[in-house]
Amino acid sequence: MGSKVAILGGGVAGMTAAHELIKRGFEVVVYERQAKYVGARMRIVYYQNFGRCYPKTRRWAMKKLALLIFFMLFLVSFTQAQKHKSKMTYIEIAKFKLKEGFTDEQFIEAEKNVRNGLIKSQKGFISCETGVDADGTWVIVVHWETLADSEASMQKWATEASVDDFKEMIEPTSFRMGVYDSKAFLKN
Asked: What is d(CA 96, CA 98) in angstroms, rounded to the nearest whole number?
């Protein structure tokens, strides 16, 4: 998200709100008039022989503030979920093994060149991840904004000479590929 939020008051509710907002990706600044009293220490009243006691009016104000903060967090989460609810993305997954004679290091270098050259320059590119399992099966996962973007990339892939070295490393009988649609929801 990257949005900035200012919280006035560094008491329990303010610090809780800051914690929850940071978990959701917000940049948070907490302003407290007396910084040495962060976390409700200032709000504690000492009575002789009774230990700590919270005045009734402060408790009521804290409950009201906590409820308000909870409602604001719910509203932000709900708004973000609604914003992303209708956004459809497409996931292209390719699985394969390398031909005999090629090393993982050679493949990683070739994949990096293809990713930074052809793939990232394509319209609708979102992200790309590459991995390998213990048996040497590689997987490349590419996220696209639209199905048309994914299909255009595959067509360019078939004719682009700059990826020939990369394609030469892949064992053709092991190659499997699929494109899947996915609704993007708020990530935790």
From this structure: 7
